[in-house]
Amino acid sequence: MAVPNKLPKDFIWGFATAAFQIEGSTNADGRGPSIWDEFSRTPGKTLDGKSGDYATESYKLWKEDIALLAAYGVRSYRFSLSWSRIIPLGGRNDPVNLKGIEFYSKFIDELLAHGITPFVTLYHWDLPQGLQDRYNGWLGKDEIVKDYANYAKVCFEAFGDRVKHWLTINEPWCCAILGHGRGVFAPGRSSDRNRSAEGDSSTEPWLVGHHIILAHAHAVKVYREEFKPTQKGQIGITLNGDWALPYDNTPENIDAAQHALDFAIGDYPFKLFDPVYLGFYPPYMREVLGNRMPDFTEDEWRVVKGSSDFYGMNTYTTNLCRAGGDDEFQGNVEYTFTRPDGSQLGTQAHCAWLQDYPDGFRQLLNYIWKRYKLPIYVTENGFAVKGETDIPIEEAVKDFDRIHYFQGTTKALLDAINHDGVDIRSYFPWSLLDNFEWADGYTTRFGVTYVDYETQTRYPKDSARFLVKWFNEHEHPEVAKRPKAKIPTSSLHLSSNGSVSSKASSPTPAPSRWGFRSTVMKVVAAILAFIR
Ligand code: PNW
Prior knowledge:
It is built from 19 helices and 13 strands. By secondary structure, the chain is an alpha/beta fold. The chain has a single domain (12-474), classed as Alpha-Beta Barrel (TIM Barrel), CATH 3.20.20. An eight-stranded parallel beta barrel has the order 1-2-3-4-5-7-10-11, surrounded by four helices. Strands 6-8-9 form a three-stranded mixed β-sheet. A hairpin with a 4-residue loop joins β12 and β13. The longest helix is centred in the middle third of the chain and has 28 residues, at 204-231. It is globular, with a radius of gyration of 22 Å. It binds 4-nitrophenyl beta-D-glucopyranoside (PNW). 4-nitrophenyl beta-D-glucopyranoside binds at residues 18, 21, 170-171, 174, 240, 314, 353, 380, 430, 437, 446.
């Protein structure tokens, strides 16, 4: 029998974003500050010196964003809630901000009105500054676990009647290692005194990771005990992890790849998240970390083990691994994309850590499925085209390298499902929009939609068209077909109120609206006419 080339019936796909990367409006409607507000405003912390104060202005342009999602015909949208919009100071005894609840409530209703399933991340790195000031945020074990569980409960109460897909925490590795080890992400703590006045990179990342596991597990406990019986949703954590290949066939590098994998799932040395899935910390971790290694009490283990309904996977690339180096955060393995013969593993992205290698994606899916035996939700996967910021918009939207990346990953996804029998439930390319790429500021673009930050106009890239078409062709035959929507060539937001319109100094003259030929297309036509 021929292997089917369609997705399973309940498969969901859509695009992903995170609150701090898109919302802007950091002072609106009672929002409290988050650790990324302060960090991104501090000179030297982002590559272009820019903060998240405007981002893609999605707090103001949320209806336009949803209209764009609807035009793409997505089934689902993965977005995150800003904790400090909902509880401005963050703590369990601090007031809840009804305006924050109202904003996300309207947002969810609008998604549902368009037939788009909300897929909600509770925490995507924007900790309320109030909690950082009060007890050092994720380092304050007892407090943060209780405050996070309370915040989660507020969200289940407010939105759980309509939200059936919850992610507790996005990529804890980044909070722990990048935020408290290397010091390049908020709150920027590190032993490196050139970077940070406070911090201990040898202990804090491990404590933060440990506390995140506990906070996640307690939120899941609240959900399962108090909400799941009536709300009937799914809840889990989402981890970053990339595939690892040996640099060459020497035994030590074959071992290194295995070590990197052992270390790197969740991109965490020593599989730090095995407690969640398997109920133990690998002994090797204790061996290496000695008395720096935190542990759970018996009561805590009971809450932690089995605390994810699924495996949430964010994955971008594959690393060639060589034994050696002294980077403990990488498990003392060196990563490269250059093969021994000097050739590259794949196409280089704008950011140094990413090359295109779709076979690694398929292998990782198989590895995770065999190891954890839980359904996999792919919650992020994407590519930043090199130099996309430095070229005119009309060239940037022809994002061939990103299309190539998604051609590979969509095929790998389908093969993993249909040939290999891996239970995969979702695929969310990162990202709906170019956006605030953390320490890179706005210099790195991951969007399938180009954002002109001067005007906040959104221009669908060719990769968006590729993905929309691919999913149309590969959805299960029994999934109700949507009326064919026309993807707009661009969307200039209605120049309504506030700082958006006042700061917009548009290089594109006439506001082009959906259904009209956009300025870009006119420019392209003019260039073509000129060439001919
Ligand atoms: C993820 N690395 O972050 C995040 O979940 C997104 O918010 C982000 O925009 C996206 O991937 C693209 O970077 C990562 O250094 C940040 O390997 C850094 C790394 C990996 C993922």
